[in-house]
Amino acid sequence: MWLDVVLAVVALGLLVVGYASLVERNLYRVRSSELSILPAGSRPIRVLHISDIHLAPWQKRKMRWVNSLDSLDPDLVVDTGDNLGHLASVRPAISMLEPLLKVPGVFVNGSNDYHAPVLRNPFTYLFRPSTRSNGGLIDTATLMTAMETSGWLNLNNQSGTMTINGVRIGFLGLDDPHDELAWYERLPQQQREVAGEDIVFGIAHAPYLKVIDEFGAAGASLIFAGHTHGGQVCLPGGRAIITNCDLPAKSAKGLSSFEVSGKRVWLNVCAGLGTSIFAPFRLFCPPEVRLITLTAKG
Known about the structure:
By secondary structure, this protein is an alpha/beta fold. About 20% of the residues lie in helices and about 25% in strands.
């Protein structure tokens, strides 16, 4: 009897692992939402939020899927980093993103855009966020140059402005907070540089609570981030167990709001399209991009 139970548990475990690694991690989805946040009378803005692609050069299906996203007709692309997942991914990533690079866009980097992934014990994530990678250096500059040449704004510890559908948007940006590359001390200067715009967005890879507080204090009404993978392995129903930062698990993906200095600040987290090549599985958390339609306040 006990042997039958053990064999059944092992068989179930193998089925779950097989589904998570061979099926669900390839079920790419577009998650749509709407947020009334623009000034009264503004035309809608369709924002395509992409993040955590973690591209490896052999992932042809993922490349084709991302290559087709321009068919969503976004007005703005927000890329919150970790596009790369292998030392040889830079040129494939540029080719993959080429159609989207024709759309106005902004970007920041994640840690995996700087260093190749390394083998980690996945169970350590249950107790603390991951540590800085010591993997090989990736040719990040080539990817960033391609993005900037296309007209995308590099927001790594920089601000920027852009007019989309008549709405003047100010952007505050931070380099990856998870690897302690964020220069928070520059945000007051960034705030001055975007003063007078119709609305301000904050863009960072990892949604630490400090990131939310600092962006909110600097005037951001809406923050875009990735990093969490939505939990990657979730409970049934999609409830995240971990976020790989101090963000509450309930905010691991999608829209949530926080109060900063008496003001409501929105956070949009994209659960991303990829995983580390050393942890190629997702469970109750399919890979995604987010299409958020911003509309005028009522």
